[in-house]
Amino acid sequence: MARAKQTRCEDIIRGLTDLGVQSGSLLMVHSSLSSIGNVYGGAETVVDALLKVLGLEGTLVVPTFTYPGDYPPSRDPNWIFDPDRTPSAMGAITNAVRTRPKAQRSFHLWHSVAAIGPLANTITTTGGSSAWDSNSPMAWICKNDGQLLLLGVPYSNLTAIHIWEVALAVAYRREYDVKRRMRCLDGSLAPLISRVHDRTESHPGSDFNRFGEHLEAADKVQIGPVGNAIGRLFTGIDAARIAEAMYIEDQHAFLKQGDTVTALSHGKTIENAKGFQSVVDPDLVFPATSPGAGQKG
C-alpha cells in the first residue's frame, strides 16, 4: 500500500491554482475530503485553501442538501429545517463552509446551498420554492459565469444536471411540493414549502459520467490533481450547452444504459461507503473513520 503523505493548505492551494481556479471567481464545489488524502487540519484546511485562492472578491458555494436518503430525519413530516443548525448531508467540507461566520444558506428543505463571498446573499435568496428551476440558486450560478468544481468526486455528484433536466422537461421526473416548517432567526417557526423534482418509478438510474465524458471530449474541462483527489473544473455555461445538445440527440442521455455507469478516462473512480470518489491513487484515500475524514458533497 502507498505511504500516505500529509496534505497541507499550501498543497491544496497549489493544486487549485494549477487547475485554473482564479481569484474573484464564482465557484460551486462538489467535494470529498477523504479523496484528497490525509489533510492536515481536515475540512477547515480545504475551506481555507478555497477561500484564499478565490480571494475577497470571489464567492464559494457548496451543496448543503438534507435529502431523505442522506439525512433520514427530513422524511418526518414534523421535521423542522433550521438553516443555522441543520447539518449538511454532503460531507465535511460542506459543513465546514456552512458553519463559517460569514456563510449564508438558501431556504430549500432538501436541496439548500451555502455560500461565502460578495455574491452569497444574491445566490442564497434568489428564486422561489424550487432548488432546480431556472430561477434557483444553482441555475443562477450557471448563468452568471459560475464555474463548477468536482473535487475528488466524479460527474455522478454533479447535481447541476437536474437544472437542465427540469429546463428540458424530461419525462422521467415528476414535480410536487413538500411541506415542512423552518426555524427563523428569532426562533419562531414559519411554513416552508419546497418544490421537488423527483424521479418517476420508471427511472432506471442516472449516468452523469456519460455527460462528463462528452464535456471532456469537447475540451471544456480542466483536469488535475488536488492532493490525491482528481479535480475537474468547467463553466456552467459550457456544461449547459453540452447537456442540451446531448438531450436533443438522445432523450436518455443522462440515464443508465445498463447495469453500470460510464467509466471516466481520467483518474480512478471507486465506490465505497462514502459514495463515488475520483482519485489519483485509491490506496491514498483517507479512511472515513480517521479524524478529519469526510464524505462526498
Summarize the structure.
The protein is built from nine helices and 14 strands.
Using the CA coordinates, give the radius of gyration. Answer: 18 Å
Largest sheet: 7 strands, mixed
- What fraction of residues sit in β-strands? 15-25%
Q: Please give the alpha-carbon distance between the first and last residues.
A: 26 Å
Percent helix, as a range, is 25-40%
Mean of all residue-level pLDDT scores: 93
Structural class: alpha/beta
Number of domains: 1
- SSE topology string: EHEHEHEEHEEHHEHEEHEEHEE
Number of helices: 9
- Return residue spans where pLDDT drops below 50 for at least 5 consecutive residues: 289-295
Strand count: 14
Q: How are strands sequenced across the largest beta sheet?
A: 6-7-4-2-8-12-11
Shape: globular
Summary keywords:
297 residues, alpha/beta, 7-stranded mixed beta sheet, 3-stranded mixed beta sheet, 9 helices, 14 strands, disordered C terminus
